[in-house]
Amino acid sequence: MRTLAFDGRTGAAGDMTCAALIAAGADAAVLDPVEERLPVRYEVGETVKNGIRATTVDVLLEEDGGDDADRDAHAHDHESGHGHSHGHGHDHDHGHDHDHGHDHDHGHDHDHDHTHAEGAGIHRTYPEVVDVVESMGLPAAVEATALEAFELLGRAEASTHGTDLEDTAFHEVGADDAVADVVGAALLLDDLDVDRVVTTPLAVGGGEVEMAHGVYPVPAPAVVGIAERAGLTLVGGPIDRELLTPTGAAILGAVAEGVDALPELRVEGAGYGAGDATFERHPNVLRAVVGDGVETTGNDDEETGHVHGHGPDTGSEGLVHDDIVVLETNLDDAAPEVLGGLQESLAEAGARDVTVVPTTMKKSRPGHLVKVVCKPADAAAVAERLARETGTLGVRQAGASHRWIAERSFETATLSIDGVDHAVSVKVAATADGDVYDVSAEYDEAAAVAAETDLPTREVLRRAETSVHDGLGDGGD
After folding, report:
1. Which of 160, 197, 382, 383 shows a CA-CA span of 20 to 30 A to 52?
2. CATH topology for 406-473?
3. In the chain, ranges of CATH 3.10.20.300 domains
4. Which residue stretches does the UniProt record annotate as biased composition, category Basic and acidic residues (predicted)?
5. How many CB atoms sit inside 10 A of residue 474's CB?
């Protein structure tokens, strides 16, 4: 499984994330749609942070003329610090002391002036940001990633300020540079074409930040809210400085699962995205590592094997201990169409498994019991989505607090049929000490092979499972 792992030991910001993705192998040319839709240009370069060569990304505001005095009033000095707000009015000093190796203008002619776009341009509300993203003509997966990041950010801000999501004003993080950071990261991630994204605990720094409402300790409330909703782990330090910005947290929260340490990877590429400031002892970089990994955490959907959240306690043998919450509600008036859509809708909110069971309710009325398995960090969001989708007046948390699950990985079976090779993925279930007790071929892939070869689907399933089972028995990977 091709995996991207972020290592945020000195935090993350939007520009750092974009830079790290480029350094890890993404093609900066995929950023063209943003430059075509927004009055910005990406400048990609290199710097050295405490002995580590790293990639930099600046978002520059395109200016069509205007007098020099006006431009100077809005320009930022690369050598001295400058502050900007991340949606809640506090200053974040980035320093911008790096040197750029080259301008990355993707072949466009730029005959007008540029200033740094941090906080520049229109400041938008959440609905206005959604409209901008949806108007950019992005691939569906890229648009979904960008919108999820902004929804995370919007809900965190709304919760902090006690406002409705639709009324949430993003201020600086709704400006052109922040949109460019979020959409740019989504485009670059899509270009890397990975199957899984993880992040180690993210350093938030320490000290205090100035906000519109006064002085507040690091991390800022929006960062905490995003981490809570996305299941990210935060850690204080290593210096008294704000290190994790809301934009950086929102991007990682939208795309990455939180893990305790870098997973086992056969490394294919790695790189560092530089932040603007330079610290005395700590390189201000976000590391990104890409490689083939084995799906070894237990936070996965019981049916699909998709992994989410923090790795559970594996122990030394047997099945894996995985902390969960089970949510339940009884429905006596839900339309079949609503019940049929719950799997997808609740999965978007963080559900790992959804079961709808016919039952008999009071006054002998037919009804349904909906049971949802999710991670503790996702329980509130899943319960709210369940209530909104069904109209139920209450969602209860059942007694289960953990489950015992298999270690899961995927192998590829290559089937030679009439001289043509066909690949089918096979899920392998094992105990924590590696004792394989089940192999199960992916039905959709087997069905596709069956359609091409005129073999029965169950015969393709049997051949794929036998191939992997025999290979494991022979000591194969």
Report:
1. 197
2. Ubiquitin-like (UB roll) (3.10.20)
3. 406-473
4. 71-117
5. 7
Please tell me whether the overall predicted TM-score, pTM, comes out greater than 0.90 for this model.
no
Give tens-digit pLDDT for 82-108.
333 344 333 334 333 333 333 444 433
**Distances, alpha carbon 168 to alpha carbons 107, 125, 157, 251, in Å:** 37, 6, 7, 18
Question: Is 213 in contact with 89 (CB distance < 8 Å)?
Answer: yes
- Tokens 């006054």 -> residue: 363
Please report, for the chain, how many H helices and E strands are present, in that order: 12, 21
- 221-240 residue pLDDT tens: 889 999 988 889 999 999 99
Residue 402 β-bridge partners = 323
Sign of the four-CA dihedral 294, 298, 302, 308: negative
Q: Tell me if the bond preceding 238 is cis, omega within 30° of 0.
A: yes
Angle of helix 443-453 versus helix 457-473 axis, rounded to 10: 120
pLDDT tens by residue, 28-53:
999 999 999 999 999 999 999 999 99
Q: Which residue has the higher pLDDT, 283 or 474?
A: 283
Strand partners, 44: 57
In this structure, CATH architecture of domain 321-404: 2-Layer Sandwich (3.30)
Cα–Cα dist 394/407, whole Å: 34
Range(s) of the chain covered by CATH 3.30.70.1380: 321-404
> What does the alpha-carbon distance between residue 297 and residue 128 come to, in Å, rounded to a whole number?
38
CA quadruple 64, 68, 72, 74: dihedral sign? negative
DSSP 398: -
Distances (CA, A) of 22 to 65, 367, 435: 31, 52, 39
